[in-house]
Structure formats: structure tokens, C-alpha cells
Write a structure and sequence with these properties.
Helix content: 40-55%
Structural class: alpha/beta
Strand content: 5-15%
Distance between the termini: 16 Å
CATH superfamily: HAD superfamily/HAD-like
Largest sheet: 6 strands, parallel
Order of helices and strands: HHEEEHHEHEHEHEHEHH
Strand order of the largest sheet: 5-4-1-6-7-8
Oligomer: single chain
Length: 197
């Protein structure tokens, strides 16, 4: 096991040792993920004419379909109005109405989404890397705020979970691995059992 994997394992075990966190994760039904800086490395490709797109992690994408099959709802919520988020989301099995782009007020968009899906704030986790994401927890009271390691320090202070990975580099994969495992729905449940015990 290399050093990065050892660090991930230590993080995973620390999360499992936090009984309050595990209890909260068991109740999660909806994950709202920011895009730039969380599902990507925050790079945007721009030509002289226009914005061309983003680079998404294949490893992050690998766990979307198992998560959706387990019954979790995943929404992508981006402040930028871009087609690459919709294309990526729908290719991973997220319904188009859950790929929310051009969102200027994430608090109001979250309230609307929770109402439409009949989900409570206690059943919701926000995964983001900046102020607009953290603000959903601070001002709206969403139960859990998770962020990647490249999130500014002052916003990490608001987070319930900080992954040991940067956005676009398996940060979302590790978070989904944890949630699926805690909920007893991970496709590699028995393998993880052996490693964490």
C-alpha cells in the first residue's frame, strides 16, 4: 500500500470511529455536489472564443451508478451555466433535472430541491469547495458539509468532513465510498470490512 492509500485508509478509519458522523451518514439520502473544484480540479479550458469545458475524474465517476442504484439521490449544482456539467451528469445516470447549472443562490436552490424531493435537511449532504457551498450549511442548516482537501482553510473549519484528496482527484469517490460503506451498500463491502478491521 503506497503512502497516499495509507493516508486514505487512516482518514476512512477516523471517520468510522466518529460515531456521531457515522450516525448522520446513515441517514443521508441526498448528496448535492458542487462541480468546479470538487468534481474537477478547478481548471476551465478556454479558447479565444469561449469556454470549452472541464476535466472530470473517471475514478470519481465510477461510483456514481452504484450510489444511484443503492437509492441515493445525487444532484450537481454549479454556479456556472455550462453544458459540460449536464453532459457529465447525465452520462453518469443523474437525471437532467438534478443537473442544476447557472445557480446564483444555492440556498434557495437547495430549499427548492429538498421540497421537490421530499428530503429533510438532516438527510442532505453538501459537497463543495467554496463559500456558496458552506453557506448552505451555515444559513440553511443542512446536516453535513463535506469538502475536498483543496478547500480554503476557513471554509474547512465549517466542514464536517474534509477528504484527504483534492477536488477532481478522487475526493468525491472517497466520500461516496464512505457513505456507501456506512450504509451497508458498498459494492466492495466485504473487502473494506477486512481492510478497516
Amino acid at each position: 500500500m503506497n503512502d497516499d492509500a495509507k493516508k486514505d485508509l487512516a482518514w476512512f478509519k477516523d471517520c468510522l470511529a466518529n460515531k456521531a458522523l457515522v450516525s448522520s451518514l446513515k441517514n443521508i439520502k441526498l448528496i448535492i455536489a458542487d462541480v468546479d473544484g470538487t468534481l474537477t480540479d478547478a481548471s476551465i479550458y478556454i479558447t479565444e472564443e469561449k469556454e470549452e469545458g472541464r476535466c472530470f475524474s473517471v475514478q470519481d465517476g465510477f461510483v456514481f451508478k452504484p450510489a444511484l442504484r443503492s437509492g441515493l439521490l445525487i444532484a450537481l449544482m454549479s454556479g456556472k451555466d455550462n453544458q459540460s456539467t449536464i453532459i457529465r451528469g447525465t452520462s453518469l445516470g443523474i437525471p437532467k433535472d438534478m443537473c442544476l447549472v447557472g445557480i446564483n443562490n444555492k440556498i434557495e436552490a437547495t430549499k427548492k430541491l429538498l421540497h421537490e424531493k421530499n428530503i429533510s435537511i438532516e438527510q442532505t449532504l453538501i459537497f463543495g469547495d467554496d463559500f456558496l457551498d458552506a453557506d448552505v450549511k451555515v444559513k440553511h442548516g443542512v446536516k453535513l458539509f463535506a469538502c475536498p482537501n483543496n478547500t480554503p482553510f476557513y471554509l474547512q473549519s465549517v466542514a464536517d468532513i474534509v477528504t484527504p484528496k483534492n477536488g477532481g482527484n478522487q475526493a468525491f469517490r472517497l466520500l461516496l465510498d464512505l457513505i456507501l460503506y456506512v450504509q451497508g451498500n458498498h459494492f466492495a463491502q466485504e473487502i473494506i470490512d477486512r481492510v478497516v478491521s
